Amino acid sequence: MSSILRRCTKLTHSGILSMLPGSNGRSCALQYFASEKRYSTSSKIKVDLDSNTGVAIMQFQSPPVNSLSLDFLTEFAINIEKLELDRSCRGVIITSALPKVFSAGLDILEMYQKSPEHYVEFWKAVQEAWFKLYGSSKVTIAAINGNSPAGGCLLAMCCDYRIMAENPRYSIGLNETQLGIVAPFWFKDTMQNVVGHRETEKGLQLGKLYTAPEALKVGLVDELVPEEKVVSSAAEAMSKWLAIPDHARQLSKSMMRKPTIDRLLAAREADITNFVSFTSKDSIQKSLGMYMEMLKKRRS
Ligand SMILES: CCCCCCCCC/C=C/C(=O)SCCNC(=O)CCNC(=O)[C@H](O)C(C)(C)COP(=O)(O)OP(=O)(O)OC[C@H]1O[C@@H](n2cnc3c(N)ncnc32)[C@H](O)[C@@H]1OP(=O)(O)O
Protein backbone atom coordinates (compact mmCIF):
# COMPACT_ATOMS: atom_id res chain seq x y z
CA MET A 1 0.00 0.00 0.00
CA SER A 2 2.63 2.51 1.05
CA SER A 3 4.80 1.89 -2.01
CA ILE A 4 1.80 2.37 -4.29
CA LEU A 5 1.00 5.61 -2.53
CA ARG A 6 4.60 6.79 -2.88
CA ARG A 7 4.66 5.93 -6.56
CA CYS A 8 1.42 7.73 -7.28
CA THR A 9 2.49 10.90 -5.44
CA LYS A 10 2.69 13.50 -8.14
CA LEU A 11 5.08 16.36 -7.56
CA THR A 12 4.91 19.69 -9.26
CA HIS A 13 6.47 22.98 -8.26
CA SER A 14 4.42 26.10 -8.48
CA GLY A 15 6.88 28.91 -8.04
CA ILE A 16 7.36 31.69 -5.50
CA LEU A 17 4.36 32.91 -3.58
CA SER A 18 4.01 35.81 -1.19
CA MET A 19 4.22 35.40 2.60
CA LEU A 20 1.78 38.27 3.09
CA PRO A 21 -1.89 37.59 3.75
CA GLY A 22 -4.17 38.78 0.97
CA SER A 23 -7.63 40.27 1.39
CA ASN A 24 -9.40 37.02 0.69
CA GLY A 25 -8.55 34.30 3.20
CA ARG A 26 -9.71 31.44 0.97
CA SER A 27 -8.15 32.33 -2.32
CA CYS A 28 -4.89 33.46 -0.77
CA ALA A 29 -4.53 30.42 1.45
CA LEU A 30 -1.76 28.99 -0.65
CA GLN A 31 0.14 32.25 -0.70
CA TYR A 32 1.73 31.32 2.60
CA PHE A 33 3.73 28.69 0.91
CA ALA A 34 6.88 29.47 -0.94
CA SER A 35 7.42 26.22 -2.73
CA GLU A 36 4.86 23.52 -3.11
CA LYS A 37 4.39 19.93 -3.99
CA ARG A 38 0.98 19.41 -5.52
CA TYR A 39 -0.22 16.10 -4.14
CA SER A 40 -3.73 15.72 -5.26
CA THR A 41 -4.93 15.92 -8.82
CA SER A 42 -8.42 14.75 -7.91
CA SER A 43 -11.45 16.97 -7.93
CA LYS A 44 -12.71 16.61 -4.36
CA ILE A 45 -9.65 17.46 -2.31
CA LYS A 46 -6.69 19.66 -3.15
CA VAL A 47 -3.45 19.19 -1.24
CA ASP A 48 -0.38 21.40 -1.46
CA LEU A 49 2.73 20.78 0.58
CA ASP A 50 5.24 23.54 1.15
CA SER A 51 8.61 21.87 1.19
CA ASN A 52 10.19 24.82 3.03
CA THR A 53 7.87 24.83 6.03
CA GLY A 54 6.78 21.18 5.89
CA VAL A 55 3.14 22.30 6.11
CA ALA A 56 0.45 20.91 3.81
CA ILE A 57 -2.86 22.60 3.13
CA MET A 58 -5.70 20.27 2.38
CA GLN A 59 -8.69 22.03 0.85
CA PHE A 60 -12.06 20.37 0.50
CA GLN A 61 -13.62 21.32 -2.83
CA SER A 62 -16.57 19.03 -3.32
CA PRO A 63 -19.70 21.10 -4.05
CA PRO A 64 -22.28 21.78 -2.92
CA VAL A 65 -21.41 21.07 0.74
CA ASN A 66 -18.27 18.88 0.97
CA SER A 67 -20.37 15.94 2.11
CA LEU A 68 -18.32 12.89 3.04
CA SER A 69 -19.24 10.43 0.33
CA LEU A 70 -17.51 7.09 -0.16
CA ASP A 71 -15.30 8.62 -2.86
CA PHE A 72 -14.50 11.66 -0.76
CA LEU A 73 -13.58 9.59 2.29
CA THR A 74 -11.42 7.23 0.24
CA GLU A 75 -9.57 10.12 -1.31
CA PHE A 76 -9.22 11.79 2.08
CA ALA A 77 -7.70 8.69 3.69
CA ILE A 78 -5.26 8.24 0.80
CA ASN A 79 -4.14 11.85 1.02
CA ILE A 80 -3.61 11.71 4.78
CA GLU A 81 -1.69 8.45 4.35
CA LYS A 82 0.52 9.99 1.66
CA LEU A 83 1.34 12.92 3.91
CA GLU A 84 1.98 10.56 6.81
CA LEU A 85 4.56 8.72 4.74
CA ASP A 86 6.20 11.91 3.52
CA ARG A 87 9.03 12.76 5.90
CA SER A 88 9.18 16.32 4.58
CA CYS A 89 5.65 16.94 5.87
CA ARG A 90 5.34 17.98 9.54
CA GLY A 91 1.87 19.49 9.69
CA VAL A 92 -1.47 19.55 7.88
CA ILE A 93 -4.06 22.32 7.79
CA ILE A 94 -7.51 21.16 6.78
CA THR A 95 -9.96 23.68 5.39
CA SER A 96 -12.69 24.21 2.81
CA ALA A 97 -12.46 25.89 -0.55
CA LEU A 98 -16.27 26.32 -0.64
CA PRO A 99 -18.14 29.28 0.82
CA LYS A 100 -20.05 28.89 4.12
CA VAL A 101 -19.38 25.20 4.66
CA PHE A 102 -16.44 23.28 6.07
CA SER A 103 -18.19 19.92 5.61
CA ALA A 104 -21.85 18.87 5.85
CA GLY A 105 -20.76 15.57 7.40
CA LEU A 106 -21.41 12.09 6.09
CA ASP A 107 -23.17 12.01 2.77
CA ILE A 108 -26.68 10.98 3.78
CA LEU A 109 -27.34 9.52 0.33
CA GLU A 110 -24.66 6.89 1.05
CA MET A 111 -26.82 5.69 3.95
CA TYR A 112 -30.17 5.88 2.17
CA GLN A 113 -31.81 3.13 0.12
CA LYS A 114 -28.56 1.33 -0.61
CA SER A 115 -27.60 -2.35 -0.24
CA PRO A 116 -26.08 -3.84 2.93
CA GLU A 117 -22.87 -4.40 0.91
CA HIS A 118 -22.74 -0.70 0.17
CA TYR A 119 -23.25 0.17 3.84
CA VAL A 120 -20.32 -2.11 4.75
CA GLU A 121 -18.06 -0.45 2.22
CA PHE A 122 -19.14 3.03 3.24
CA TRP A 123 -18.70 2.44 6.96
CA LYS A 124 -15.24 0.93 6.43
CA ALA A 125 -14.29 4.13 4.62
CA VAL A 126 -15.61 6.24 7.52
CA GLN A 127 -13.60 4.19 10.01
CA GLU A 128 -10.49 4.32 7.83
CA ALA A 129 -10.63 8.12 7.47
CA TRP A 130 -10.95 8.42 11.26
CA PHE A 131 -8.06 6.02 11.93
CA LYS A 132 -5.82 7.93 9.54
CA LEU A 133 -6.61 11.39 10.83
CA TYR A 134 -7.00 10.67 14.54
CA GLY A 135 -3.87 8.52 14.45
CA SER A 136 -1.78 10.91 12.36
CA SER A 137 1.66 11.70 13.76
CA LYS A 138 1.65 15.09 12.03
CA VAL A 139 0.37 18.29 13.63
CA THR A 140 -3.17 18.64 12.32
CA ILE A 141 -5.10 21.91 12.47
CA ALA A 142 -8.68 22.45 11.33
CA ALA A 143 -9.34 25.86 9.78
CA ILE A 144 -13.13 25.77 10.04
CA ASN A 145 -14.42 28.38 7.62
CA GLY A 146 -18.08 27.41 7.59
CA ASN A 147 -20.74 25.08 8.95
CA SER A 148 -19.44 21.82 10.30
CA PRO A 149 -22.19 19.43 11.41
CA ALA A 150 -21.81 15.75 12.38
CA GLY A 151 -19.04 14.07 10.35
CA GLY A 152 -17.65 17.54 9.58
CA CYS A 153 -17.37 18.16 13.31
CA LEU A 154 -15.76 14.72 13.72
CA LEU A 155 -13.01 15.58 11.23
CA ALA A 156 -12.36 18.87 13.00
CA MET A 157 -12.31 17.16 16.42
CA CYS A 158 -9.71 14.68 15.15
CA CYS A 159 -7.26 17.55 14.67
CA ASP A 160 -4.85 18.79 17.31
CA TYR A 161 -6.18 22.35 17.18
CA ARG A 162 -9.28 24.08 15.81
CA ILE A 163 -9.68 27.62 14.56
CA MET A 164 -13.15 28.70 13.47
CA ALA A 165 -14.52 31.73 11.64
CA GLU A 166 -16.19 33.98 14.23
CA ASN A 167 -19.39 34.20 12.17
CA PRO A 168 -22.24 33.38 14.63
CA ARG A 169 -24.26 31.89 11.77
CA TYR A 170 -21.79 29.03 11.46
CA SER A 171 -22.28 26.05 13.69
CA ILE A 172 -20.51 22.85 14.63
CA GLY A 173 -21.51 19.78 16.60
CA LEU A 174 -22.62 16.17 16.53
CA ASN A 175 -26.28 16.66 15.55
CA GLU A 176 -26.99 13.00 14.71
CA THR A 177 -29.94 12.63 17.10
CA GLN A 178 -31.74 15.39 15.18
CA LEU A 179 -31.69 13.05 12.17
CA GLY A 180 -33.02 10.19 14.32
CA ILE A 181 -29.66 8.41 14.19
CA VAL A 182 -27.03 7.80 16.85
CA ALA A 183 -23.39 8.81 16.75
CA PRO A 184 -21.26 5.69 17.26
CA PHE A 185 -19.12 5.28 20.38
CA TRP A 186 -15.94 6.48 18.72
CA PHE A 187 -17.56 9.74 17.59
CA LYS A 188 -18.61 10.12 21.24
CA ASP A 189 -15.12 9.24 22.49
CA THR A 190 -13.57 11.80 20.14
CA MET A 191 -15.90 14.53 21.40
CA GLN A 192 -15.43 13.54 25.01
CA ASN A 193 -11.66 13.81 24.57
CA VAL A 194 -12.13 17.39 23.36
CA VAL A 195 -14.86 18.87 25.61
CA GLY A 196 -15.23 16.38 28.48
CA HIS A 197 -17.96 14.04 29.67
CA ARG A 198 -20.70 16.43 30.76
CA GLU A 199 -20.66 18.63 27.66
CA THR A 200 -20.59 15.54 25.43
CA GLU A 201 -23.55 14.08 27.30
CA LYS A 202 -25.60 17.22 26.65
CA GLY A 203 -24.29 17.83 23.14
CA LEU A 204 -24.91 14.29 21.95
CA GLN A 205 -28.38 13.83 23.41
CA LEU A 206 -29.60 17.19 22.16
CA GLY A 207 -27.83 16.80 18.82
CA LYS A 208 -26.56 20.27 19.57
CA LEU A 209 -25.10 22.44 16.86
CA TYR A 210 -23.00 24.99 18.71
CA THR A 211 -22.72 28.45 17.19
CA ALA A 212 -19.12 29.55 16.78
CA PRO A 213 -19.15 31.58 20.05
CA GLU A 214 -20.79 28.67 21.92
CA ALA A 215 -18.22 26.27 20.49
CA LEU A 216 -15.42 28.48 21.78
CA LYS A 217 -17.03 28.69 25.20
CA VAL A 218 -17.20 24.91 25.66
CA GLY A 219 -13.77 24.30 24.12
CA LEU A 220 -15.07 22.58 21.00
CA VAL A 221 -12.90 25.05 19.08
CA ASP A 222 -9.77 26.74 20.37
CA GLU A 223 -9.93 30.13 18.66
CA LEU A 224 -12.35 32.32 16.73
CA VAL A 225 -10.91 34.69 14.16
CA PRO A 226 -12.34 36.82 11.35
CA GLU A 227 -13.35 34.62 8.45
CA GLU A 228 -10.65 35.91 6.11
CA LYS A 229 -7.98 35.08 8.69
CA VAL A 230 -8.89 31.47 9.41
CA VAL A 231 -6.18 29.94 7.26
CA SER A 232 -3.48 32.50 8.11
CA SER A 233 -4.22 32.05 11.83
CA ALA A 234 -3.95 28.29 11.36
CA ALA A 235 -0.55 28.81 9.75
CA GLU A 236 0.52 30.94 12.73
CA ALA A 237 -0.71 28.35 15.21
CA MET A 238 1.05 25.67 13.21
CA SER A 239 4.41 27.39 13.62
CA LYS A 240 3.98 27.26 17.42
CA TRP A 241 3.20 23.54 17.34
CA LEU A 242 6.14 22.91 15.00
CA ALA A 243 8.52 24.64 17.41
CA ILE A 244 8.28 21.50 19.57
CA PRO A 245 10.60 18.61 18.64
CA ASP A 246 8.57 16.15 16.56
CA HIS A 247 9.50 12.98 18.45
CA ALA A 248 8.47 14.35 21.85
CA ARG A 249 5.21 15.80 20.53
CA GLN A 250 4.37 12.68 18.55
CA LEU A 251 4.88 10.36 21.52
CA SER A 252 2.75 12.63 23.68
CA LYS A 253 0.00 12.66 21.05
CA SER A 254 0.08 8.91 20.70
CA MET A 255 0.00 8.46 24.49
CA MET A 256 -3.18 10.56 24.65
CA ARG A 257 -4.95 8.96 21.68
CA LYS A 258 -3.91 5.30 21.69
CA PRO A 259 -6.59 4.04 24.12
CA THR A 260 -9.33 5.63 22.00
CA ILE A 261 -7.89 4.18 18.79
CA ASP A 262 -7.46 0.76 20.37
CA ARG A 263 -11.10 0.73 21.43
CA LEU A 264 -12.30 0.97 17.83
CA LEU A 265 -9.59 -1.39 16.59
CA ALA A 266 -10.91 -4.01 18.99
CA ALA A 267 -14.51 -3.48 17.90
CA ARG A 268 -14.05 -2.67 14.25
CA GLU A 269 -16.07 -5.56 12.80
CA ALA A 270 -18.82 -5.33 15.40
CA ASP A 271 -19.09 -1.62 14.70
CA ILE A 272 -19.61 -2.33 10.98
CA THR A 273 -22.23 -4.95 11.74
CA ASN A 274 -24.04 -2.55 14.06
CA PHE A 275 -23.98 0.20 11.47
CA VAL A 276 -25.38 -2.03 8.74
CA SER A 277 -28.20 -3.44 10.82
CA PHE A 278 -29.04 -0.01 12.28
CA THR A 279 -29.01 1.76 8.93
CA SER A 280 -31.01 -0.97 7.21
CA LYS A 281 -33.92 -0.60 9.64
CA ASP A 282 -37.12 0.78 8.07
CA SER A 283 -37.50 3.32 10.86
CA ILE A 284 -33.98 4.69 10.28
CA GLN A 285 -34.47 4.81 6.53
CA LYS A 286 -37.71 6.72 7.11
CA SER A 287 -35.95 9.23 9.38
CA LEU A 288 -33.17 9.79 6.84
CA GLY A 289 -35.70 10.22 4.01
CA MET A 290 -37.65 12.78 6.06
CA TYR A 291 -34.46 14.64 6.93
CA MET A 292 -33.43 14.89 3.27
CA GLU A 293 -36.92 16.18 2.43
CA MET A 294 -36.63 18.76 5.20
CA LEU A 295 -33.29 19.95 3.77
CA LYS A 296 -34.84 20.34 0.34
CA LYS A 297 -37.92 22.20 1.67
CA ARG A 298 -35.78 24.51 3.75
CA ARG A 299 -34.07 25.50 0.56
CA SER A 300 -37.20 26.21 -1.51
C1 LIG B 1 -23.00 1.67 15.24
C2 LIG B 1 -24.07 2.58 15.62
C3 LIG B 1 -24.96 2.97 14.51
C4 LIG B 1 -24.41 4.04 13.66
C5 LIG B 1 -25.51 4.91 13.20
C6 LIG B 1 -25.15 5.81 12.08
C7 LIG B 1 -24.26 6.93 12.48
C8 LIG B 1 -24.08 7.87 11.37
C9 LIG B 1 -23.31 9.08 11.79
C10 LIG B 1 -23.66 10.18 10.92
C11 LIG B 1 -22.89 11.21 10.75
C12 LIG B 1 -23.22 12.31 9.82
O1 LIG B 1 -22.38 13.04 9.44
S1 LIG B 1 -24.83 12.45 9.25
C13 LIG B 1 -24.89 13.92 8.29
C14 LIG B 1 -25.40 15.06 9.12
N1 LIG B 1 -25.35 16.26 8.36
C15 LIG B 1 -26.22 17.24 8.47
O2 LIG B 1 -27.18 17.16 9.24
C16 LIG B 1 -26.03 18.42 7.59
C17 LIG B 1 -27.22 18.75 6.78
N2 LIG B 1 -26.95 19.89 5.95
C18 LIG B 1 -27.07 21.15 6.35
O3 LIG B 1 -27.37 21.45 7.50
C19 LIG B 1 -26.83 22.21 5.33
O4 LIG B 1 -26.85 21.61 4.04
C20 LIG B 1 -25.51 22.96 5.50
C21 LIG B 1 -24.30 22.04 5.62
C22 LIG B 1 -25.58 23.88 6.75
C23 LIG B 1 -25.30 23.86 4.24
O5 LIG B 1 -26.43 24.66 4.04
P1 LIG B 1 -26.69 25.35 2.62
O6 LIG B 1 -27.91 26.21 2.77
O7 LIG B 1 -25.41 25.99 2.16
O8 LIG B 1 -26.95 24.15 1.62
P2 LIG B 1 -28.28 23.28 1.43
O9 LIG B 1 -29.17 23.99 0.45
O10 LIG B 1 -28.86 22.89 2.75
O11 LIG B 1 -27.67 21.97 0.77
C24 LIG B 1 -27.23 21.92 -0.57
C25 LIG B 1 -27.50 20.52 -1.10
O12 LIG B 1 -26.69 19.58 -0.39
C26 LIG B 1 -27.52 18.57 0.17
N3 LIG B 1 -26.91 18.13 1.44
C27 LIG B 1 -26.65 18.88 2.52
N4 LIG B 1 -26.08 18.16 3.48
C28 LIG B 1 -25.97 16.89 2.99
C29 LIG B 1 -25.44 15.67 3.50
N5 LIG B 1 -24.90 15.59 4.72
N6 LIG B 1 -25.50 14.58 2.72
C30 LIG B 1 -26.04 14.65 1.49
N7 LIG B 1 -26.55 15.77 0.95
C31 LIG B 1 -26.51 16.89 1.70
C32 LIG B 1 -28.87 19.26 0.36
O13 LIG B 1 -29.90 18.30 0.43
C33 LIG B 1 -28.94 20.07 -0.90
O14 LIG B 1 -29.29 19.21 -1.98
P3 LIG B 1 -30.20 19.67 -3.21
O15 LIG B 1 -31.43 20.30 -2.64
O16 LIG B 1 -30.47 18.39 -3.96
O17 LIG B 1 -29.32 20.63 -3.96
Give an overview of the whole structure.
It is a single chain. The chain has a single domain, classed as 2-enoyl-CoA Hydratase, Chain A, domain 1, CATH 3.90.226. The protein has helices at 2-8, 70-85, 116-134, 151-158, 185-195, 197-206, 212-218, 230-242, 246-266, 268-280, 282-299; strands at residues 36-38, 45-50, 55-60, 91-96, 139-144, 148-149, 161-165, 171-173, 210-211, 223-225. It is globular, with a radius of gyration of 19 Å. It contains eleven helices and ten strands. The protein has a seven-stranded mixed beta sheet, with helices on both faces. The protein has a three-stranded mixed beta sheet with strand order 6-8-9. Helix 5 (185-195) packs antiparallel against helix 9 (246-266). By secondary structure, the chain is an alpha/beta fold. The model is unreliable at 1-34 (pLDDT under 50). Ligand 8Z2 binds at residues 64-65, 67, 100-101, 104-109, 147, 149-151, 175-176, 179, 181-184, 271, 274-275, 278, 292, 295-296, 299. It is found in: Mitochondrion matrix. Belongs to the enoyl-CoA hydratase/isomerase family. Pathway: Lipid metabolism; fatty acid beta-oxidation. This is Enoyl-CoA delta isomerase 1, mitochondrial.
Low-confidence stretches: 1-34
CATH superfamily: 2-enoyl-CoA Hydratase, Chain A, domain 1
Arithmetic mean of pLDDT: 89
Order of helices and strands: HEEEHEHEEHEEHHEHEHHHH
Subcellular location: Mitochondrion matrix
Main location: mitochondrion
Keywords: Acetylation, Fatty acid metabolism, Isomerase, Lipid metabolism, Mitochondrion, Transit peptide
Organism: Danionella cerebrum
